[in-house]
Amino acid sequence: MEIPVIDFSKLDGEERSATMALLHHACEKWGFFMIENHGIDTNLMDNVKQLVIQHYEANMKKRFYESELPMSLEKKEKLSKTDWESTFFLWHRPSSNIYGTEGLSKDLCNAIDGYIDQLINLAENLSELMCENLGLEKSYIKEAFSGSKGPSVGTKVAIYPQCPRPELVRGLREHTDAGGIILLLQDEQVPGLEFFKDGHWVKIPPSKNNRIFVNTGDQIEILSNGMYKSIQHRVMAEKNGNRLSIATFYNPAGEAIISPAPKLLYPCHLRFQDYLNLYSKTKFAEKGPRFESAKTLANGH
């Protein structure tokens, strides 16, 4: 099962239509995909990953292995309500807490700040492409996500440490993401991420060639009236090596009200006889405009 790969370099040429169709298919049928040639500085991406790993080794590793979690595994206890991960969370928009986060080096703060600036541009570009495929105004998702200060953007930085008993614990338990568009900078060597599709868990390979892995969250499913799906996923604990995960969430603001886009809703609360009257005049025409007219009738116009 080959995961869709969206080549952003093809969006400006003769292959744009085919690339847009592939993106729509990925959002509709998969709920996850990879992006390549995305325009983000690859040296910056490599620097972020290297500095996060250094931070983990210097500041997080010892504390993790001295916590109660590894001790429980030593007792051969199966852990069903906890996750084998070492994490910290950073906010970027509408305001940033990076430089005030204790223990982060200036180099790491600067690298993450630069990376996120570029990543937000990619997220907003991606949201516009989704809107185009859904037949919405290109700024619809951004405006729907915006509170008084714009969308909310944050990053979960996680290391899934080498686990001596991976059969007893999940790296991260099964879930869907609550928010909007998730862009993942992940490990190049250690696997573990899995998504549930068509009744099977699909293993997501480590990201090669600086690809960014993307999945859609619950709010995109709501906004698209179920056309685009949020998909259950998990992280398996691994015996061989630490897995790096830097997941950035392009989410609605806390006060944003998310509803299905009216343009994507079917007509509702309409008397069937009224629909039949409309149908008799438009039977041999496209049904899309007929549905739009039916919505107008349903609203009392």
TrEMBL record:
Keywords: Ethylene biosynthesis, Iron, Metal-binding, Oxidoreductase, Vitamin C. Residues 149-252 form the Fe2OG dioxygenase domain. GO terms for biological process: coumarin biosynthetic process; ethylene biosynthetic process; response to molecule of fungal origin. GO terms for molecular function: 1-aminocyclopropane-1-carboxylate oxidase activity; 2-oxoglutarate-dependent dioxygenase activity; L-ascorbic acid binding; metal ion binding. PROSITE patterns: FE2OG_OXY. Pfam families: 2OG-FeII_Oxy, DIOX_N. It catalyses: 1-aminocyclopropane-1-carboxylate + L-ascorbate + O2 = ethene + L-dehydroascorbate + hydrogen cyanide + CO2 + 2 H2O. Gene3D superfamilies: B-lactam Antibiotic, Isopenicillin N Synthase, Chain. Its EC number is 1.14.17.4. It comes from the Eukaryota. Pathway: Alkene biosynthesis; ethylene biosynthesis via S-adenosyl-L-methionine; ethylene from S-adenosyl-L-methionine: step 2/2. PANTHER family: OXOGLUTARATE/IRON-DEPENDENT DIOXYGENASE. This is aminocyclopropanecarboxylate oxidase. The lineage of its organism: Eukaryota, Viridiplantae, Streptophyta, Embryophyta, Tracheophyta.
